[in-house]
Amino acid sequence: MDLCVTIKGVSFLLQTGLGILGNIVVLLAYASIICTEPKLLPVDMILCHLAFANLMLLLTRCVPQTMTVFGLKDLLNDPGCKVVIYAYRIGRALSVCITCMLSVFQAMTIAPAGPRLSKLKPVLPSLVLPTFAALWLLNMAICIAAPFFSMAPRNGTIPAFTLNLGFCHVDFRDNMSYVINGVAVSGRDFAFVALMLGSSGYILLLLHRHSEQVKGIRRSHGSRAETRAAKTVVTLVVLYVVFFGIDNVIWIYMLTVSKVSPVVADMRVFFSSCYASLSPFFIISSNKKVKRKIVCAAEHDQPLVDTQESNEK
């Protein structure tokens, strides 16, 4: 195994392992919160769903990609490829949609209560679950073409307009299908990213106005909590947009060539998965509820370890 393959394999392994661990920790923390609290707050529900979408993305894309990099072949047959690629497309789509949903929800939460918002704000929590269902249905419909083009790798020359994922091939058969698929996916992503940027910009404007108003005034606990939550959302959006930009620069390049180099495809996979791997650690560090549950779990396990060590002595 040469140095380039080793570096690539270790990079994917670290990204995949840490990302899966981080998202599972977030989900377990929220599962514990559900057991001790009557119900999750809307923002917590959105963050929990975001962790699930990111975990789904990592399991269906980065795990097989890592195994392929280390030389494992024939991982999936044709039906397996169709299921995995379809699940990956849905997970990736949900990641951008739920991040957008988080940004829009937070913007509406901290916005001044005007004539329209005063009626909408009380029903916002009840709209979270229907919005989840709508996003699932929307993305399942948009991604429905993915299984028809997915197949297990074939021996011989890779046809034109085929994405070689290593563990699977996505054969679009002709330039028209290739471009239409790229435009549909990119159009959806850019629409949601534009919406999240607009709502995040509005959040920043509100935070600036709020900081000007409260200079020299002691802020309430609720005000500090809302400000902290808003900053967390904006940071998550910035994190997503950075990796989204890198991902789409590579994707646009891939649309302009008939045969895509495996190195270019691997670079796109790595950068497009960075958000899914890094966001759970940011959620853990910035969300007091999640952090508290993790600390409590660690402290609960520590006496057991100390008891075992004393018994061994």
From TrEMBL:
Identify this protein by name.
Vomeronasal type-1 receptor
Source organism of the structure = Poecilia mexicana
Coiled-coil region(s) at which residues? none
Q: Tell me its family.
A: Belongs to the G-protein coupled receptor 1 family.
Per its UniProt record, what PANTHER family does this chain match?
VOMERONASAL TYPE-1 RECEPTOR (PTHR24062)
Q: Which GO terms describe its biological process?
A: response to pheromone
Q: Which residues form the G-protein coupled receptors family 1 profile domain?
A: 22-283
Membrane-crossing ranges are 12-34, 46-70, 90-111, 123-149, 229-255, 267-284
Recorded GO cellular component terms are: plasma membrane
**Chief location bin:** membrane
Cite the GO molecular-function annotations of the record: pheromone receptor activity
